[in-house]
Amino acid sequence: MKMFSKAAALGTTAMLAGLVGATGAYAQIEQITVTSQKREQTLQEVPIAVSVVQAETLENAQIVDAIDLQSVVPSLRVSQLERSSNATFIIRGQGNGANNPGIEPSVAVYIDGVFRSRAGTALSDLNGIERIEVLRGPQSTLFGKNATAGVVSIITESPQFEFGGTAEITLGNYNSIITRGSVTGPLSDNLAFSLSGSVNQRDGYYENLGPAGDFNNRDRWSLRGQLLYTPSDTFSLRVIADHDEIEEACCGTDRLLDGPAGPVLRGLLGGQTSAGAGFNYEIATDFANENRIENSGISAQADWSLSDTLSLSSITSYRMYEDFIDYEGDFTTLELLGANVRGLDVDTFSQEFRLTGEWGDRAFFLLGAYYSTEDMTVDDSRLYGSDTRAYVDILTGGALGGLEAATGFAPGSFFADGGGTTFTAEQSDEQFQIFSQVDFNLTDRLVFTAGLAYFESEKEVDFLNVVRTNPFSDLNLVEIGLGSFLASAGVNPNDPVQVGAFAAAQPAVFGAFVNASSTFNAVGLANGGVLVGGVVVDPLTGLPLANPLLDFFALGLQPLGALTPFPNSVEDGRTSDSDTPYTVRLAFDATDRTNIYGSFSRGFKASSWNLTPDTRPNSSDIAALRAAGELAADNALGAPTIVNTAEALGVAGNQRFARPEITETFEIGFKTRFDFGSLDVAYFDQTVTDFQSSVFQGAGFAVINAGEQSATGLEFDAVIAPPSIEGLTFTMSGIWMDAQYDDFQGAPVVSGGTVDLADGVQDGTGDLSGQTVAGIPDFAGSFGVEYIRQMSFGELMLRGDWQYESEVRLLENLPESISRQVSTINASIGVNFNNGVETLLWARNLNEDEYYTSGFPTTLQAGSFSVYPNQPRTYGLTVRTRF
Fold first, then answer.
1. First-residue to last-residue Cα distance in the chain
2. How many CA atoms does the CB half-sphere of 553 hold within 13 Å?
3. Is the preceding omega at residue 567 within 30 degrees of 0, hence cis?
4. 239: which strand partners?
5. Is residue 391 scored above 90 in pLDDT?
6. Fewer CB atoms inside 10 Å of the end CB: C or N, the chain?
7. What does pTM read for this prediction?
8. Are 274 and 212 in contact (CB under 8 A)?
């Protein structure tokens, strides 16, 4: 905590202006400097929707990492899923990435001007931070292809030419210990340094009822060193090197809805599962997740003042990122998954140049160029465990042995221990961008802004080293079902002559057999069928209406299916994208303290590849691949071309990559400052075309473009310091938002639900066109209060904030009954003693609010759904000294 008299604008957002140093009848308004347009401006004059969280807020609200940041910026959501590095940044309801390494984010995260291409590289503790700027809406003109939803820009403290530093320790519940320190000072008259570091350790708050350790612990450390060289008034060079590591067991889940698999796992197989709903933070697994992250890099920013009106900047960066996870993915004490391992290795180089200048009092211009190259390697292994076969055999009513015999496989071939899929994926991504922006003063109060960029993105992907021993997933249950119907009529399904003769002699019966072979039981029953001897039949004719074997497909028992390695003769494994994002804006200074603006902007995100075991060719390529003998050419069955159930049902394609994503946003807003506060209001109308969706469906990832998603919203941010009560500050921020899918066919939905079965295929996909987007509340807000008072022993600070979100369905592929509503209170009491010691007693989630951050259909357990509960109440004492 710095002196509280300098931090009256703490709490929720520290938005439009910080109110500091209250004197006389009114508070004085401090100008906050931001770089949201890649040049220094005051927050009041920059005509875009931007939230600023300053260092004092981070310290006094005990905001430790990026996940905590959302508690003070309502438009931002940061969701952590099954592992420490799997965080998704969402702004105004738009964001993606999640657990698919090939899906790029829609929210760009920058630290000191350097883009962090993976969320895991931005999760180290927020230590030595000067401020965080959250830019809302498309920012592709200045920030490139990954800013279609917005930007989170983190700016660290620069080295100082005056010696100083901090030392801090925090003790909290769950045996939490956080130590931080920093030191800065001069090495010579024109060379300064800084060094900061942190260690964050905590026991897991998720108790494991199985033999493994607890989940959701903290074990991470970070180190950052900087040099600032200023040999003259016209040149400066800032070099930053950082390294951080995370090694944790994350993340605990609750089995909220228990499907038919639950009793099998617990009763017949003697396993344990999580205790279910109730926020008791208990899980049951046979081993704890292993998450290991190493993230490091170096950057150099050089700034030249070429003249009084012209300056040049250069930012050069090289970063290395390694992410390894051994994930307990079946959420039981059994070995349904024997191995669920993924290693990710990413090396990124980037170079940016910016030339800025002024043309008298008439215009300001910015010209820039950006180049980056990234090499990524994914090593993935998903293997069945020792309990998988027994579990599946029970679910299928003991059918595995009979199916093996009928299809010519040796006993024990299906779901064998160690069977599954391993592969390596390599991706190279080369990007080039030029960008420009001009602010032209039409009058002393009216400014016209035009921004235009052009970029190219070239990606090459190799999907190789595929080893697969999972023959059950290659079975064509449609063909087998038809064969069983023919056999019941005395026809040898393997004899084309007999089949042809039967079809000619009894076309109606043969047609019924064909139709039934691709029809699910649920559909057959809905069409008036009755269940006789395990088969749904027509009560009038007795002919089958459905194929009972398709229930195995509906249960998700054919994951890790046939793969088509690429490049091949049809797929070259390349995408080449180019676009011209732009921004046009008018800003009018109605008064010296009030700014009104209107803007239209276009954002663009390049194609993203599906680099998981669920990657499949696009539907348009399947026929050519089959003709070339390369469809599913992984030779798992010794045959180059495989037609499995998904292919026979026509639902096997469109999983390879997602087309480019385009966001167009119209926005009007105003910002005003008054004697005792400030107010920022923005209305936006946003359309996202080809939104890149990647959703886990329990047996794999569904990657698809949503045709069109639209949203309208109203945001406000306010800071009020009542002049009658010195030291009292209120902060209020909120967003009302209405979002819907205008066009989203093939969307991930609840398997077996009405939307899923509308097309007659139970595959967990359906048409969500015209429906409200799940996960986006009608209203989200943060409301804070802070009171500062001088005492005889020093300075006293009291603060609290309330984070609220209205109830909303959690996800489209979870039942509607699984919803989320947030009402969380955070609070702190701080004292700056006269001897220089600072203390802070804090609590996050003081009222023990309970809600779910995300969820998913439970792996290999159809009908069961798991969720990620929010973090329980945490509290502690922080002691800090500055020197």
1. 13
2. 30
3. yes
4. 227, 300
5. yes
6. C
7. 0.89
8. no
843: its two tokens: 């609590």
Number of Cβ within 10 Å of residue 525's Cβ equals: 14
Burial of 536-564, coded b for 16+ CB within 10 Å and e otherwise, reads: bbbeeeebbbbbbbbbbbbbbbbbbbbbb
- CB 387, CB 266: distance < 8 Å: no
**Which DSSP letter does residue 631 get?**
T
DSSP 122: G
3-state secondary structure of 649: helix
639 pLDDT band, cuts 50/70/90, is: low
pLDDT recorded at residue 19 = 31
Tell me the per-residue pLDDT of 414-471, one tens digit each, with 9 for 90 and over: 999 999 999 999 999 999 999 999 999 999 999 999 999 999 999 999 988 888 888 8
Read off φ and ψ for residue 71, nearest 5 degrees: -70, -15
Q: 119-133, 173-187, 490-504: lowest mean pLDDT where?
A: 119-133
Round to whole Å and give the CA distance between 727 and 23.
10
pLDDT number for residue 29:
44
DSSP 423-487: EEEEEEEEEEEEEEEEEEESSSSEEEEEEEEEEEEEEEEEEEEEEE--GGGG--HHHHHHHHHHH
Q: Is the pLDDT of residue 83 over 90?
A: no
Q: How high is the pLDDT of residue 18?
A: 32
- Answer for the pair 773, 788: CB distance below 8 angstroms, yes or no: no
List the one residue out of 52, 72, 79 whose CA is nearest residue 800: 72
Cα 520-521-526 angle, rounded to 5 deg: 100
Q: Is 406 helix (H, G, I), strand (E, B) or coil?
A: helix
Q: Beta strands 282-283 and 728-743: pairing type?
A: unpaired
8 A C-beta contact, residue 159 and residue 192: yes
Averaged pLDDT of the chain: 89
The one-letter code for the residue type at 16 is: L
Going by C-alpha positions, the residue among 737, 747, 856 that lies closest to residue 805 is: 737
Residue 726 has pLDDT above 70, yes or no: yes
Distance (Å, whole) CA 468 – CA 465 = 10
In contact, 649 and 677? CB cutoff 8 Å: no
Res 6: pLDDT: 32
Task: Give the DSSP H/E element, type plus range, for residue 336.
Answer: none
- Cα angle 452, 454, 459; round to 5: 150
Total residues belonging to the chain: 883
Distances (CA, A) of 549 to 242, 403, 519, 555, 862: 55, 10, 10, 10, 15
- What is 520-572 written as a DSSP string? -HHHHHHTT-EEETTEEE-TTT--B-S-TTHHHHHTT---S-----BS-SS--
Q: Which of the four pLDDT bands, split at 50, 70 and 90, describes residue 603? A: very high
Domain range annotation of the chain: 4-155, 156-473+558-849+858-882, 476-554
Kindly state the average pLDDT of the residues 133-141.
90
Specify burial of residue 528 (Cβ count, 10 A radius: 0-12, 13-18, 19+).
exposed
156-473+558-849+858-882 carries CATH number 2.40.170.20: yes
3-class secondary-structure state, position 518? coil
Contacts of 534 (CB under 8 A, 6+ apart): 548
Mean pLDDT of 713-719: 94
Q: Is the pLDDT of residue 7 over 60?
A: no
Rounded percentage of the chain residues whose pLDDT exceeds 90: 63
For 792, residues 6+ apart whose C-beta sits below 8 A from its C-beta are: none
Asked whether residue 8 carries a pLDDT value surpassing 60, the answer given is: no
Q: Are 252 and 239 in contact (CB under 8 A)?
A: no
Tokens 């009104």 belong to which residue? 596
Q: What is the dotted CATH code of the domain comprising 4-155? A: 2.170.130.10
